[in-house]
Amino acid sequence: MTYLWLPLGLALPTIIGWSVLRILEGKTPVLFQAERIVAGLCIGIIGTMFDTFILHIIGVIDLSLIGMLSVQLFSAVLLGGYCFFKRNELPKSPKQRVEKLLLWQKILTGILGLWIAAKLVAGFIFLIGPPYYDDVMNNWNMRGKAFFVQQELILEIEPGKDNGVASYPQAVPMMKTWLANLNGDWHEGLVNSVHIVWYICALALVFFALRRLLSLPWAMLGVYLLSSIPLYSMHGMIAYADLYLSILIFLSVSWLFFAVQNTGAVRMSFIRIASLVTALLVFSKNEALLLHLPPIVLILVVGMFFAKFTPSEKKQTIAWYGVFIMACIIPWIAFKWHYGLTFGNAKSISSFDIEWHAGVLSAIKFNTLLEGNWNLLPVLFVGLCLTQWKRVLFTPMNILIGFIVIVWLGQLPIYMFTSLYIEALNQTGYARGLIHLTPLIVMSTTLLLHSILHRKTDEVSV
Amino acid sequence: MNRLSLFFLGLVILTTPAVCAAKNVTVWDLQNQDKLEGWNTVNLTSVQLMPQGLSIQTDTAGQIVKVSKLRHSVDTISTTYTSPTGGKGIFIWRAPGMKEDEVYQVPVDFVASSTPQQLVLNMNKVPEWNARSDRIGFVLMPNIDFVLQKMEFSGESSTNAFVYPFKTFFTLDQARAYSINFLWGPLMTYSANQYAALFTEFPPVADSWNIGFYYILGLGLILALWRKRRIGRKAVTAFFVLFACLWILYDARMGAEIISYANTDIKTWWSKPYELKDYRDRGSFAAFSQLVTEYTEGKENYVFLASHGWPFWSTLLYTAYPALPVTLDNATDDIETWVVYNRRDIQIDESGRLTLGGEVISPPGDVMLNFEPGSFVFLTR
Asked: Which of B181, B246, B261, B330 has the highest number of chain A CBs within 10 A, making it the mutation to test binding with A?
């Protein structure tokens, strides 16, 4: 019975997220109906929690059931009501082409589908057990439980002791607080179960993104590839926030990619929804503000010139991104400054000394190529990028791969030259950076594979 | 017979002697050598290469080590030497992962004799031994006159080296604290000893199967490029079919590991009553921490004494929150609840007080939860 609170707890954020996306798409819907629901769930959670956070720190609500519910009910009624009353004016969502699978494709889909389902069931069982992983009980769940118990946002779990996690954004812990409020008690399985939902969302969103460009079998191939990345699966069954961040990054960058790839009203629809999710990134994990937001802004600027945005499109793009990012970043940074919270990941970035650390590259090579974390993805991805270099450089694929390369390679100096080197040597930090990029890498890999192997009679090439 | 069949036949003929060899042996022979390659000496009074071997004299303790690249298991090391003086020494090696200035060591005696002697070390009995050590050699004590003729490293048969990598491929790790950051993945061992020790020490003494996959893919790519002129795109497709097969095999291996994590949780946690529950590598603590909450509920603080800090402290801090743990270093006078885990050194004296090393640490009270020896909840009266 306890687990029934999960769908109920996700319903309101999903309605809010769905409505916001639909309103932003306006007269030119670009997302599939099902895709908007899944993306709405992911965006609705962080958006709702951000609103709750703002209203809480200015003293309007507490973090009780009534406080959190009132924010969500108000938003859902307002936004959902707007969409409901405007439903006749808003055009229908695009539909996926109906395709029939060949017999061997159906059999393979059945076998791999069962295999993925078996892993999901195993993942759920693994996820709902007692606390085991450090950051679950030091950070994500601990803070969620503290907010639930105290009914307010607190920065120190043990008074007078700063364990460094207060500087992390609150979206994920607050989602757990919300579920616990619904249940009326802290239930480990219930508050963790949202993580497997996020994992399923990641698979679905990769499917929809690929489906926009490729045939059904190719989109399913992308889903299979993502489901078979072992460490990514682990993050679906452990209550950390990295997989959730990977979804938000995926939405932000892939929607920017679709904006660059398209023109006119479709482009601007993608720009509007991409700008929203980009702004919300800063409330997911600290890395997003420092490692992901700057490269996104960079590729946005490059993309606008590369894709020959019209002056009007450029102005609108800058306005949408500017307004949304400022709306999220200003309160968040003001909050951090006010309470003297660090901007690094539990460590202040200002305290880093620059010096060379031997062994980091070797540890990174080991993690990337010689462990069981990534299946054979790094070799496949890099190999395809090299063999398809013209496509990588001179088509909108450069948005996806440019971002991946900037973030991937951009992390290396941080580990090689700063005190964070220990995170690479102990393998506690580097792999997380790749987890954030995994859905994008899988999408790019599938597109590049398709461009090598597809028959010309298939669908439109990227 | 087509070209492919000839290729496989040749492969079988070429590999049969290696597969059937009884032992893998590597010899570092210093007799009749022109120059000393790969050896480093420190603090030796005299080092001279002679037809009989490497002649060494010491006035103070010194060492001689070789940069090692052994690529097979080694269970026996035979050192052939002559030493008119005899003396004491230390056999040293630097295992993978050790720092530059760290070595493992085993003391040895060199017998005084003018004829060649053999020092035989059975490394099976030395758990720290690792054939993949990158430095191997001796420390020689002062006043030794010594001629090192050769060192012979022998290990199990090549058949094992052929069988065990495949056997180890399907050997699964358990869920551990590091599994959020990395998974070892499929590994290769080459002997029964290595296989038995897999996942009992970290990093595991094994090679990654990924290297094998990369070789197969490299070979497949070369073949595809070679055949591309004749059969065109089919060669490219064939390469990606090979890639897909390896990918699925990899997924099957890693997916099985992930499913096995859940299976273990069901067997050791979900299907057991509290008194028999074990959770991953935390043993009974997870069950204990859940039972404890009944006694910490509504309390501001409780005293927590455990055999070690991590991960017990953070687990109980989270599980029993908002009650907060304190240690004996804090003031404990007003605290009623004492949670003790895995501390058999904490006893209850005749007056009902907790004692540690004979010293009283609590007011009188009663054991409310007797979980297992050394683990209990104590409430002061």
From this structure: B181
Write the pLDDT tens digit of every residue in A318-340. 999 999 999 999 999 999 999 98
HSE-CB for A50 with a 13 A CA cutoff? 25
Helical packing angle, A188-211 and A216-227, nearest 10°: 140
A404 in B contact zone (CB under 8 Å): no
Task: Judge: A376–B318 Cβ closer than 8 Å, yes or no.
Answer: no
| Cα distance between residue B292 and residue B306, in whole Å | 13
Between strands B87-94 and B104-110, the pairing is antiparallel
Bridge partners for B367 per DSSP: B378
* H or E stretch covering A313: helix A311-339
Among B325, B324, B326, B322, CA closest to A146: B322
| Fold classification of B23-156 (topology level) | Jelly Rolls (2.60.120)
Structure tokens at B6: 């000839």
Token pair, residue B230, equals 């004749």
If you write DSSP's letter for every residue of B240-287 in order, what string do you get? HHHHHHHHHHHHHHHHHHHHHHHHHHIIIIITS-GGG---GGGTTHHH
Q: What does the buried/exposed string (b/e) look like for A379-396 if buried means 16 or more CB atoms within 10 Å of the residue's CB? A: bbbebbbeebeebbeebb
Contact status, residue A178 vs residue A170, Cβ threshold 8 Å: no
Q: A115-156, pLDDT tens digit by residue? A: 999 999 999 999 999 999 999 999 999 999 999 999 999 999
Burial B90-110 (b: 16+ CB within 10 A, else e): bbbbbbeebeeeebbebebeb
Which H or E run includes B147?
strand B145-155
Query: A-chain residues within 8 Å CB-CB of B254?
Result: 228, 230, 233, 372, 375
A368 interfaces chain B, CB cutoff of 8 Å: no
Tokens of B313: 């402290």
Nearest CA in chain B to A430: B181
What does the block give as tokens for B333? 């006078």
Residues 259-288 of B with CB under 8 A from A: 259, 261-263, 265-266, 269-270, 279-280, 282, 286
Measure the CA–CA gap between A377 and B356, rounded to whole angstroms: 55
How far apart are the CA of A205 and the nearest CA of chain B, in angstroms?
A: 21
A367 touches chain B (CB under 8 A): yes
Give the separation between CA B272 and CA A31, rounded to whole angstroms.
47
Q: What pLDDT does residue B80 have?
A: 92
Residues of chain A in contact with residue B265, where contact means CB-CB under 8 angstroms, are 125-126, 129
Crossing angle of helices A171-183 and A188-211, in 10° steps, is: 120
Chain B interface includes A176 (CB < 8 A)? no
Interface of A with B in 136-155 (CB under 8 A): 137-138, 141-142, 145-146, 149-150
Bridge-based pairing of strands B24-29 and B145-155 is antiparallel
CA dist B309 and A31 (Å) reads 50
User: The complex's ipTM?
Assistant: 0.94
Distance CA A72, CA B279 (A): 38
Long-range contacts of B234-237 (CB under 8 A, 24+ apart): B236/A452, B236/A453, B237/A453
| A88-118 tens-digit pLDDT | 999 999 998 889 999 999 999 999 999 999 9
Q: Name the percent of chain A in helix, strand, coil, to the closest 5.
A: 75, 0, 25
Report residue B45 CA to chain centroid gap.
37
Count of CB pairs separated by less than 8 Å, A with B? 154
**Given the structure tokens 């399985």, which residue do they identify?**
A189
The domain locations on chain B are 23-156, 161-267, 280-380
Which 8-state DSSP code applies to residue A78? I
CA separation for the pair A440, A452 (Å, rounded) = 19
Helix intervals (H) in A262-292: 264-280, 286-287
Judge if pTM exceeds 0.90. no
